[in-house]
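Have a close read of this protein, sequence plus C-alpha cells, and explain what the C-alpha cells say about the fold. Thanks in advance:
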Amino acid sequence: MNGENRHIAIWNNCLQIIGNNIDPQRFDMWFRPIKPVSIEGSTLTVEVPSDFFREYLEGSFLDLLKATLKRAIGADAKLCYLVRPVRSEQPMLLSASEVNTPVNRPVSIQTYNPGGSISPFSIPGVQKVDINPRLNPAYCFANLIEGECNRMGVTAGKSISMAPGKTPFNPLFIFGGPGLGKTHVAQAAGIEIKERFPELVVLYVTGNEFKTQYMDAWKGNKFVDFLSFYMRIDVLIVDDIQDLLGQGSQNAFFNIFNHLHLNGKQLIFTSDRAPVDLQNFEERLLSRFKWGLSVELTRPDYATRLSMLKARALREGVSVSEDVLSFLAAHIKTNFRELEGTFTSLVAYASLGHKEITVSLAESLVGKIVGEQQSDISIDTIVRTVCEYFNITRDMLLSPSRKRQIVQARQIAMYECRNLVPSCSLSTIGAELGGKDHATVLHACTTVQNLMSTDRAFRQYVNDIEGMIVVPVEA
C-alpha cells in the first residue's frame, strides 16, 4: 500500500464497515462529508465540516466508530478531528473522546488496610497511583470569553496559574448563579497550571463527589487512605462546594484544607453563593474560605454575549449573519449556558432540516426554548411589583416599620429576589431592601417558605406576585 494514500485506504475500509451497519440515509448525511487527512502510527485524523458535526458523530456513533477503527487499524487505534472554520483562521485539531486530556504523574500513597478490604483509591502498601485530574481540555482559557461579568475571576485564575499556592489568592473562591462560567474558570486555571507545571498533581472534584467518597471510605474502614489520597494533591479544585454538607465530610475537608494550605498547595472552590451566604457549614470552615480571594461572576452584558456567539460560530465552522447573532445576544440574557445551548439548537435545527439560519428561525427557537423568562428581572422590578400588589409605597416597604402587612411584603420581596435574581447574594438583597444583613434575608426566605406550606391565602399572594414578575402584562 502506498504510504501517502494509506489514510485514504484505511478510511475507505472504515466506510465500508460503517455502511454495512447503519441505514444509507444516515450514512450519506454523517459519513460521506468526512475526509481522511493523515495517519501517524495508530492515530487517524479526519476532517469534519464543523464542531457540531463532530459532537453529533460522537454522541450518536461513538461505539460504532471505536469498533470500526479497532478493526481497521488495531487495538491502539485513535481518532482526531480537524475542524476547518468558515473564515481564514487556523483550523482546530480536536481529539476524539478520552484522548489528549491532561494527565498527572503517578504518586506514591501510603495506605492502611487492617481489614483486608480494597481501598477505593489505591492498593495496600506504598504504591504508585495514577490520579486522573478530570480536566476537560475544552474548558481552557482560550475558549473562555472575557467580559466585565467575569474579568476579575479570569484575571485571578491566570494569576494563580503562574505561581500556584504562592499568591494571596489561596483559596480562590468563585461564586455566582448557574451558567455564568464558574466551572470553566476553575478548570481553565487547572489546565493552565498543568501546562506550566506538568509535575504538579491537579484534581477536579465536585462537593457532592467528595462527600460520597468520604462516606464510602468511612464505611469501608478506609478513612486513612482517603486522607492520604487527598493530602498528595498539589492543586485541588472543588466545584459546587455548597453541596459539601454533613459534619463528618466537612471535618475531613477541614483537615485536608489545613494540610494543603499549610504546605503551599493551591485551592480553588466554586459555589452558587458567596461564603457568607453558605448554609449549614461549620464556622471554622467558612472562615477559611475567606482567607484568599472571593470573586463573583455576574450576568454577561450584551457585548460579552455577542462575542461569545461569534466565537462559538467560528468554532462550529458555520456562517451566521450578524443580525442573527445580535438577535440572540439581545434576547437571551440570563447566562452563558442558555445562550450557548440556544445557539447549538439553532445550528442543529438548520443543519438537520437543511434550512438557512435566519432571524425568523432564531425567533421561533428562542420562543420555544426560553419563552417569557428572558424579561429583565431585577431587585427594582420585584420591589415595584410587590408595592403595587399590596398598594404600598417603596418608602413604606424599605422602612423599619413592624406592621404586619409591611413586614410580610418585605419578606416576600426578599424571597422573590433570592429566587428570581440568582446573581444577587443575600447580602446584596438585604442592602437593597432597607439595609438588612444576610441573616435577616435568610430568615425572611425561611418564613415565607413556611407560611406558603401552611397558609393558602399567603401562598396565593406569593404566586400572584411571581406571576406578575415573570410574565408581565404587555402594554
